[in-house]
């Protein structure tokens, strides 16, 4: 598909989004207000009737409100979404505004749309037909948006904010369907979303990037690289993702041991990943010099890969093993696979999401399937097995071995949804009305942002006299 | 008042704070030690007698200690105060040290003084006349300091650290009085401080800035603007404020549904604000380019405006509506109102706090009054209504409609206190002994900071050989 | 020792770590996997048998799981370790990659090794001989690593990543022994680790730096300084350390009043430190200008010094007094002591850890000893005294006065272990096989990192055309 889109790239392009971007933002936000008015209410732990709920349900203390079980984890996840993903993508020398700004925009829209979509599938109160939300819904909305931001990483610098909004609209919708199939119909377990979030988001983004292939991207490739300070900014993103990943993987786990175990497994897996990432990065460079791209990205692969099995009895050493191999595979991916995919498969993956989310997500699905299939009552305890895999109601006769099979099926579904949905949405995004940049304007904030004049640091006198004054508040 | 201060600006100025700043810091810190010694003790949840308290009050578990209800929110608020406000103000090309450094200084002083002032008004233990503090006091002290940092935003770059300390001293004092009147005497509800913190702080700062009007500020206006990296630094502040605002608005709410509801309302309001901010920013610029000033600031307006009503049954769609209009109004404020205020009203508002805190704070007060007046027992439940509005003791016969009136009165009081107090303190700050900078020295870290030599990035050889060595630890 | 190492510095050096760094990372990470497999399991609050544990131990709610008492504090500590320490050290103009990257590497290795070492000493389950881990172990592992990162601060920019890994291996080992002696054998109390972490880590690092003295370091001293933006990056580290220090000191305190009190004492101490740091910094500079080095570092000294006594009934004013003097002493240390130590004692302390961790750590030990010795039943209550000092089992007859003596002894042990261990490890690090940089290559990321080409900001046309394209993902 890459080679047939010459007409798409040659024509003169209009990157002015002065009408389309405000229109999209206003119309969609208005739609959100109306839909929330029609469909969304507080759940019983949020509602002012909580004192009555406590009496009815024999709850002795306010501390039993789900808020206190999940809010700290929610805030950590929130930081990952907005600062983690946002700053991770600021690494390019002239696309930091776009990275952190568009990340902000699509996440803010995505969480609202996700609350609705996930609500319709999962949280309808049958008594009044309303979606009832609480802190767990906020976490799930943030999770859903994570898959959009992963896909954003593949097309970073090559699309307009309007395209990103369109992509987010469709991706959230598809996500909710995929999630419903995997978690409810198939009844797979995916606490940290290796499959549902990471594999889906990555293959979605790669498919979009494939459809939007830009054969002449070399023209702007001077900008497709970092400068010293932008690499340090990106490390802010890396570290907040890395540190809070235990919260990500444990945020919606079962109260008590479930959350506790998921956090510890993730902590260990991530620690192991760092060492193997440094090892491979040094080993495959001339003179053994480390590459910031690897350190910024591959160190996170262990968090992705331990997601599905985070709540399982993976054991501390099991987590370390997962992290060990993911750091290795992910870094090798940056060194060999990304250039290969760009040259041969016509997939331009700006941030290398295939190495950070794609492969580790698939590995996570496989680890989840194997560890579910191998679960035994001696390791989990009778009640523990039921709790962990929710072998209740319709699924009370399911065995661990069968569960393993369903976990594997879930992984295939996530990848298929990603690829299929990505191609579909990519085709929509190729329509010539979204204001995307030309090939030689990619990776440049000038296209969509008022960028301040540069300092002439060579001459401090010139610096203060010679160039246009940028008064931040007086311009229209 | 702006036009009568020519003498104030023309004389030679001495910006050397070598004696005044240390004197102020030492004397005031010593005073804090003495006053804390005389007046401040731990409350019963902090004191080592807690095991006995548990028995007396029939508390079954340590988890019932207020620490576990509020500490995670406290830490989020703490990040907003020091990193959020601090980095939001680093946007100027040569005032990042002053932004983050003076923010640090005045917040560190302010929280101590606030613990005392708020303690005297709210937390005197009648048995021994002592102020008893716990985690809730720390949050309230941080809140109080937030109003000082808002005012700092109006005068950023135009005052000396000594002036800032003086301003903080008086503002905290006034804040405690205003807060006592609004929360205790009038018995208004203001969980997130739209009125008490934001409206008060903003109008205080604007009044100070009006009194300190600098007619020749154009001379330093080359520095009153951003460079590329400083705008990215400012986004760190923006995002930490944005992400943790749900904690801000819920931190001192009632246990259980109160905190839960406030967090969700704020989350939703902020999400809506982002979309309308992007829309207006793009719509009012030539070529539809986005302006970082709007993204950094107006995206936060929804958090301010939902503050008063955060704990009320505002409903998810209600929160979205509040956020929707605040993003719109705040961004338009940056585009039209700030230049107008500078030209016509002689109010120089460096960070545009009127758009981020002033107007949204007033809107928040109005939203609070309306939603309180409209509260019904069917929506809140009988007990829920009493809990939410604290219709107890002296106020047990108050109705929601009456409460709405008092809420509106509270808003007027906050604004009046802000304007009146700001003029008063502004006059004190005009005394020619505080070491403030001349007009052409504004927005420049050189005045109060040892600034490292610039890199000559044009020539890497020169860069390493030609300029003065800055050895960080060997200079005196 | 400094003067006898000419041969060590003169020979041609090979800084290529292409084989040694990967070898160390792979072998040690593999060892971790094996040792974790042999020795580490989940504790009963993490294990899937938790539902049974709840029944056996009559625990009524999942919220009683230690996870909910400690996880928020753990995450704050985690941020301090990776972002706090990492970014605090990015202040140098050309060593930000090394600062934040090597910090990441050694912390990720250190936490794994610490879980094992501390586990063997403290957490062996006698029924099966396994180390049983939970969230408290993660906090302790992070604590242990903090001492390694403190030592890293002394040698920052002057060692290779392989040396850092070796140093971490030995320092964690020594730490576990020292900690066992102080906490278990001597039964001293050190909630925030003033002695165990800070004094030990600082004197260890200083001793290593002494052994590795570089007489010709002046040659690279052009790089031993900051630029404007790097100082702002360092403030990110400072602030996250400052804000989360209350969590650090309270993270492993007793449930309830213990954690609550430790957080409040630390909050107050740190606030006081800021004011005295600003005072001294201004007072001792010509023209009263503030020095970023002091603001970045000395403002944190109060958190170190209140560590040991954080859980004690230090009283709010007591905490302020500790902070007051530490800001003063620490800043004076940067002004007078660090240059003196470099010239006379041949100790090159890149980050001035002696002022931030060494002296305040010792002060913390002394404060702890005095406040323990002065503890009375009237202040603590009978049960409170037993709880706070754990006067139980073998120590049930110990009195506060005796405890004070043991606290003082603990402080001496920590310092002795630091100095002795540091000299030993320093000698190991002097072996000429670790790839350390030559004197004129110190403080330069070029040695171990692929550093992106500089922007030519003088000429924007040149900037985009003239220099080598850095394509982040296509290089091998």
TrEMBL record, chains A, B, C:
<keyword id="KW-0472">Membrane</keyword>
<protein>
    <recommendedName>
        <fullName>Ammonium transporter AmtB-like domain-containing protein</fullName>
    </recommendedName>
</protein>
<keyword id="KW-1003">Cell membrane</keyword>
<dbReference type="Pfam" id="PF00909">
    <property type="entry name" value="Ammonium_transp"/>
</dbReference>
<feature type="transmembrane region" description="Helical">
    <location>
        <begin position="137"/>
        <end position="156"/>
    </location>
</feature>
<feature type="transmembrane region" description="Helical">
    <location>
        <begin position="233"/>
        <end position="252"/>
    </location>
</feature>
<comment type="similarity">
    <text>Belongs to the ammonium transporter (TC 2.A.49) family. Rh subfamily.</text>
</comment>
<dbReference type="InterPro" id="IPR002229">
    <property type="entry name" value="RhesusRHD"/>
</dbReference>
<dbReference type="GO" id="GO:0005886">
    <property type="term" value="C:plasma membrane"/>
</dbReference>
<feature type="transmembrane region" description="Helical">
    <location>
        <begin position="97"/>
        <end position="116"/>
    </location>
</feature>
<keyword id="KW-0325">Glycoprotein</keyword>
<feature type="transmembrane region" description="Helical">
    <location>
        <begin position="20"/>
        <end position="40"/>
    </location>
</feature>
<dbReference type="GO" id="GO:0097272">
    <property type="term" value="P:ammonium homeostasis"/>
</dbReference>
<dbReference type="GO" id="GO:0008519">
    <property type="term" value="F:ammonium channel activity"/>
</dbReference>
<feature type="transmembrane region" description="Helical">
    <location>
        <begin position="195"/>
        <end position="213"/>
    </location>
</feature>
<feature type="transmembrane region" description="Helical">
    <location>
        <begin position="162"/>
        <end position="183"/>
    </location>
</feature>
<keyword id="KW-0812">Transmembrane</keyword>
<comment type="function">
    <text>Functions as an ammonia transporter. May play a role in the elimination of ammonia in the gill.</text>
</comment>
<dbReference type="InterPro" id="IPR029020">
    <property type="entry name" value="Ammonium/urea_transptr"/>
</dbReference>
<feature type="transmembrane region" description="Helical">
    <location>
        <begin position="408"/>
        <end position="429"/>
    </location>
</feature>
<feature type="transmembrane region" description="Helical">
    <location>
        <begin position="73"/>
        <end position="91"/>
    </location>
</feature>
<keyword id="KW-0924">Ammonia transport</keyword>
<keyword id="KW-0813">Transport</keyword>
<feature type="domain" description="Ammonium transporter AmtB-like">
    <location>
        <begin position="65"/>
        <end position="431"/>
    </location>
</feature>
<keyword id="KW-1133">Transmembrane helix</keyword>
<feature type="transmembrane region" description="Helical">
    <location>
        <begin position="317"/>
        <end position="337"/>
    </location>
</feature>
<dbReference type="InterPro" id="IPR024041">
    <property type="entry name" value="NH4_transpt_AmtB-like_dom"/>
</dbReference>
<feature type="transmembrane region" description="Helical">
    <location>
        <begin position="264"/>
        <end position="284"/>
    </location>
</feature>
